[in-house]
């Protein structure tokens, strides 16, 4: 099982996702939890590395966990531990690193472009 932590930014109908290295599917900003890291430490590290976004512990609020199919690893599961920012983020001013090749809003029904575990999140938590 791949344990990940992610930032969930959504409206009633849309969800913000990132594309990594031009892969076909998009998923939440965030990434794997390194050995010895807490979920918050991992999320803050990933957001700083990938999006140049710095948030404090107090600016992140846990909202839930789901287990779904990993992507792009076949035959594996991933545990997504989701957090919401408690402060507004201006996504138009976010600068990505070389790993993130796109960031955009998707309709929650756009299953063609959304990674399997994110679809599980939408079904089980976002509604």
Brief synopsis:
By secondary structure, the protein is of the alpha+beta class.
Helical proportion, percent range: 10-25%
Which CATH-level-2 architecture? Alpha-Beta Complex
**Shape, principal axes of CA atoms:** globular
Going across the biggest sheet, name each strand in turn. 3-1-5-4
Query: What fold name stands as the CATH topology?
Result: Nucleoside Triphosphate Pyrophosphohydrolase
Cα radius of gyration in angstroms:
13 Å
User: In whole angstroms, how far apart are the ends?
Assistant: 24 Å
How many helices? The count is: 2
**Which parts are unreliable, with pLDDT below 50 for 5 consecutive residues or more?**
none
The residue-averaged pLDDT reads 94
What is the N-to-C order of secondary-structure elements (H for helix, E for strand)?
Answer: EEEHEEEH
CATH superfamily: Nucleoside Triphosphate Pyrophosphohydrolase
Which CATH class applies here? Alpha Beta
**Sheet of most strands:** 4 strands, mixed
Number of strands: 6
Count of discrete structural domains = 1
**What fraction strand?**
25-35%
């Amino acid at each position: 099982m791949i344990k990940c932590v992610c930032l969930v930014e959504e409206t009633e109908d849309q969800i913000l996702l990132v594309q990594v290295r031009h892969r076909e599917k998009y998923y939440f900003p965030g990434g794997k939890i390194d050995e010895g890291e807490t979920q918050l430490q991992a999320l803050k590290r990933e957001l700083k590395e990938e999006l140049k976004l710095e948030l404090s512990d107090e600016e992140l609020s846990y909202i839930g966990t789901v287990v779904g199919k990993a992507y792009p690893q076949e035959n594996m599961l991933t545990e997504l531990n989701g957090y919401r920012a408690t402060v507004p983020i201006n996504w138009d001013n976010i600068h990505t690193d070389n790993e993130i090749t796109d960031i955009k809003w998707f309709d929650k029904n756009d299953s063609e472009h959304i990674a399997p575990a994110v679809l599980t999140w939408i079904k089980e938590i976002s509604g």
